[in-house]
Design goal:
By secondary structure, chain A is mostly helical. Chain A has 9 helices and no strands. The chains are: A mainly alpha (about 180), B alpha+beta (about 525).
């Protein structure tokens, strides 16, 4: 966290290297969140693009209250919400193949890629509210309390959405419905 | 292991990769945005940030980021070495005086950012510098606090908040414990010990993007914090120091440093007296007591486009204030309020009218909540309403709420309407809502340094998708339903990602004006 704060301070002074380092550090987690919320690679990249452009523009005045990763994850979740609200009903899984991780061992690679794709498909079958809470908690490392504050809802609602989401995800994977 | 845990682990392991083509596009555009912010955002100088810094207790007393980093670093470096840590803290506690100077390396030279003086029994004086001149100064002698801001020439005097300032931050170890656990990794580094006199010992933390070295003298007193970043210059193994905080102990501090004198041109404002003067219920346009609280309307004005501007407040009645004591100005111990829309159906054809509240800003201090609100009338003819109807939801909180609950008294109340106020005769020139917003921001900026809480309000997110669908079915002709169905529906949800304190004024104004325009459609 201290390193993030230092990076942010450098970014506030207009340091381009700090911007690049922050992007490199969080981009994969953020594209995962964006893809899980939108289900479309182009839209997820646009979402990440908007968040980083906005972040860079506002960095000078930014004062973090939580961790930087949590902040950026929240920004991605909000931007994804905006896109969905605007009528961008996606979940087409377009482009998933292009962003799946590549590993050295070919057989391992295939198994990992299949597993990841299966999980992403299952995630995309969850209601958006549950996906949001799960991704913000697990990728953004935000506490339930912080998510509740962010979305102006009670902590019980957030916890319920998380619990229901995880349960449903397990059922989907167990039943093979996500395949 | 629980199955839920397994599932969580699987999700955590799920990681996609960005495409290179996207990386270059995003970084290019973000880099442009950073440069634009550098050019256009020059107004957001250190002095401009002061207001934001003042809102955070942690930052307020540290004055400059470097000093705050010092406090964090001190614990992080030494927290896992109990003896040394205890000695360092003891050194600070036993110091008669402390003087800390924070400098940053900017455009090829060292620039002083802040001075902090502390003298036991006398208090603290903190100065933030800008271009070699004082941008702001805070003095706290344990009885009163003065905050001087050069940009508006005002000095605010209020009750003492913290006579230890940044020094106190260093001693607040409980608050920093979590930080220490997360930071970790600080080690003694004999190789870095100061070679010239061999007197100072170094403790360093190394990261890929940041290095920090804390210097401790032979008497185990914290002396210097150096923060370093990667550099293209290979002179110092590819690192350069860009931030330094130096600390001196037991020097003689001239009494003038703690004297609350800020020049002849400055005006000293008494915060409590000023709030009383500006928001006195006895001078209000309207006032009503309920639940042990006094609700008041202090200003009511028409704007162009029929919008109505209202300044209102709530606070405990005199009797309640005497009975329910609250020594801390930032504690919410009495009540708060929200406005409703005063929605009313006019006929069986579904025609309705309402005064939609658009909250602009809020100030809280010592039990008093003050609100600046624009009401947007809907369903009236072209000339707009002649009266403003205020639907008010009152809530008791904290000690007053506990007191009333114990006695079996109601703790909240909805008044629809609380007041029906005739709108003043139209003046020759009406302000536009945008002008009103700028005025409100100026007011809030002036209040920020000395009230417990001052914030701009962003639109909120009241609905989930399902709730919104239900709401639209319930009120299909309502404006909010039309807005939701329109292309601009995302504006309903915009704004939660940025908290008020993190938002530029211009963005806030743009955001609110957009919302205003949408609501008027």
């Amino acid at each position: 966290m201290r390193e993030d704060r230092a990076l942010l301070r450098r970014l506030g002074r207009g340091d381009q290297d700090a911007l690049r380092l922050i992007y490199q550090k969080f981009k994969d987690d953020l594209i995962t969140v964006a893809f899980c919320l939108l289900g479309d690679l182009a839209a997820a990249e646009d979402c990440l693009h908007d968040v980083f452009v906005n972040f860079a523009f506002r960095a000078r005045n930014l004062r973090l209250r939580s961790n930087l990763k949590g902040y950026l994850t929240t920004c991605v979740a909000n931007r994804a919400r905006d896109l969905l609200r605007a009528g961008v009903r996606l979940v087409s899984l377009d482009g998933l193949e292009q962003v799946l991780p590549a590993k050295g061992n070919p057989s391992q690679e295939t198994s990992d890629r299949e597993e990841t794709a299966r999980l992403v498909r299952a995630m995309l079958q969850l209601p958006r509210e549950q996906r949001e809470v799960i991704t913000m908690h697990l990728y953004g490392r935000l506490k339930f309390r912080q998510i509740a504050e962010q979305f102006a809802m009670s902590i019980n609602t957030v916890q319920s959405r998380y619990r229901y989401g995880i349960d449903k995800l397990r059922k989907l994977l167990d039943a093979g419905e996500a395949r | 292991m629980k199955r839920a845990d397994e599932m969580e682990r699987s999700i955590e392991k799920l990681k996609l990769r960005t495409r290179r083509i996207a990386d270059s596009r995003i970084l290019e555009d973000a880099s442009d945005a950073l440069q634009r912010a550098d050019r256009g955002g020059a107004a957001a100088t250190f002095a401009g940030r002061w207001g934001k810094i003042m809102k955070s207790r942690t930052l307020r007393f540290a004055s400059a980021a470097a000093l705050l980093a010092t406090a964090f670093a001190l614990y992080a470096f030494l927290g896992n070495q109990q003896t040394l840590y205890a000695r360092v803290i003891e050194g600070i506690e036993n110091a008669r005086t402390i003087h800390a100077i924070a400098k940053t390396f900017d455009n090829g030279r060292w620039v002083k950012e802040a001075d902090v003086w502390y003298e036991r029994g006398r208090g603290v004086a903190e100065i933030v510098w800008k271009d070699g001149a004082i941008a702001s100064k805070r003095i706290d002698d344990g009885t009163h606090m003065w905050v001087y801001k050069a940009d508006n020439g005002l000095t605010i005097r209020s009750k003492s908040i913290d006579p230890m300032g940044a020094v106190g931050e260093m001693l607040e170890t409980e608050q920093l414990r979590d930080q220490r656990l997360q930071d970790g990794g600080f080690t003694r580094d004999p190789g870095n010990d100061r070679p010239d006199d061999g007197q100072w010992l170094a403790y360093a933390r190394y990261g890929k993007t940041q290095q920090a070295i804390l210097w401790v003298d032979q008497a185990k007193r914290f002396r210097v914090l150096e923060e370093r970043r990667p550099s293209s210059d290979q002179q110092d193994n590819g690192w350069e120091t860009y931030c330094i905080t130096e600390v001196q102990y037991d020097i003689d501090i001239p009494p003038s440093v703690f004297a609350p004198e800020f020049g002849e041109s400055t005006r000293i404002v008494e915060v409590d007296a000023m709030l009383d003067e500006q928001f006195d219920p006895k001078q209000a346009v309207f006032t009503k007591e309920a639940l042990g609280l006094t609700f008041s309307v202090h200003e009511l004005a028409k704007c162009k486009g029929n919008a109505i501007f209202v300044v209102s407040s709530i606070g405990p009645t005199d009797a309640v204030r005497k009975k329910v004591r609250s020594s801390d100005g930032s504690a919410w111990n009495y009540g708060r309020y929200e406005f409703g829309a005063s929605w009313k159906r006019l006929d069986k054809h579904g025609r309705a009218r309402a005064f939609r509240p658009l909250n602009l800003a809020e100030v809280y201090h010592a039990g008093r909540q003050i609100r600046w609100t624009l009401f947007l009338p809907h369903g009236f003819d072209g000339k707009g309403p002649k009266e403003c109807e205020l639907e008010v939801h009152l809530y008791t909180i904290g000690r007053l709420q506990a007191d009333r609950s114990r006695k079996g008294l109601p703790t909240q109340q909805r008044s629809k309407p609380m007041a029906v106020l005739p709108l003043p005769e139209t003046p020759e020139t009406l302000s536009t809502p945008e002008e009103v917003m700028h005025q409100v921001y100026s007011t809030i900026a002036a209040f920020e340094p000395y009230v417990a809480s001052a914030k701009l309000e962003l639109r909120h997110v009241p609905f989930t998708d399902e709730e919104m669908e239900a709401e639209i079915k319930k009120h299909p002709d309502d404006g909010i339903a039309k807005l939701y169905r329109s292309d601009k529906s995302q504006r309903l949800l915009h704004g939660r990602s940025t908290r008020p304190s993190e938002m530029r004024t211009e963005d806030w104004i743009t955001d609110r004006v957009s919302q205003l325009l949408e609501m008027e459609q």
